Amino acid sequence: MRRAIRDNGLSLFFLALFVLALLGQSVAGYLRNDAELTDHGMPRIGFGEFVTSSDFLVDVAENWQSEFLQFFLFIAATIWLVQRGSPESKRPGDEGPGSDADQLVGDQARPDSPTWARAGGLRAMFYGNSLLIVMGAVFVLSWLAQSLTGTVVMNSENAMHGAAPITWLDYIVSSDFWDRTLQNWQSEFLAVGTMVAFSIYLRQRGSAESKPVGVPDQVSSTESE
């Protein structure tokens, strides 16, 4: 058990943080929603009803879609784009998907390579792009969930103010939807861009996201260029 925890410590750490943050968000959101209902003279709802409501789910989906879009674009961009000196990038000259020998695919696979990598053909092609596929799929599903639950929330607010309901298509072209969406996207893009740039000149000893402290700024890895 101790070895399993050690070997999976990074995943378990962020899973625990995710659960705690989601729980904190649900409690804070419930209290906020409860106060708003009281101010409008409306009946209060239970915690379980709140965490399954569109009002809560739209905020969760909004954050998820921006995070997965960030990683989807970063993974895709680092196939073809490089940043000299950043450990977040391949070295200049290594752009592209690489050869079968580089990627240990098909006939070039090792005996202990994943089965689909050794299979070659369509299975190796799918497996070789599976990270991008899954990240893209989660982004699309989260975006869809955000837009659908956002439509429900918007129509609830319209009903309270005596306004006519809107359709899903009306909502996804509305300023409310894109204001909520773009304010998250810009922060994610800024975070990735600064991580790439800061890691050229700054170090964190012992972190896999940093070059060794003594490596020159313009060198992307411990290998000479």
Description:
- The protein is mainly α and 225 residues long.
- The chain folds into two domains: 1-52; 54-225, no CATH class.
- Helices cover 66% and strands 0% of the residues.
- It contains ten helices and no strands.
- It has helices at 2-7, 9-39, 47-51, 54-80, 100-103, 115-119, 121-128, 130-160, 168-172, 175-201.
- The longest helix is centred in the N-terminal third of the chain and has 31 residues, at 9-39.
- It starts with a helix and ends in a 24-residue tail after the last helix.
- The model has no long low-confidence stretch (mean pLDDT 91).
In short:
The chain has helices at 2-7, 9-39, 47-51, 54-80, 100-103, 115-119, 121-128, 130-160, 168-172, 175-201. It is an all-alpha fold.
pLDDT below 50 for ≥5 consecutive residues: which ranges?
A: none
Query: Gap between N and C termini, in Å?
Result: 42 Å
What string, H for helix and E for strand, traces the elements in order?
Answer: HHHHHHHHHH
Q: How many beta-strand segments? A: 0
Report helical residue fraction.
55-70%
Q: How many domain modules?
A: 2
What proportion strand?
under 5%
Mean pLDDT: 91
Q: How many H/I helical runs?
A: 10
Shape by Cα distribution? elongated
SSE class: mainly alpha
Largest sheet: none
Rounded radius of gyration (Å): 23 Å
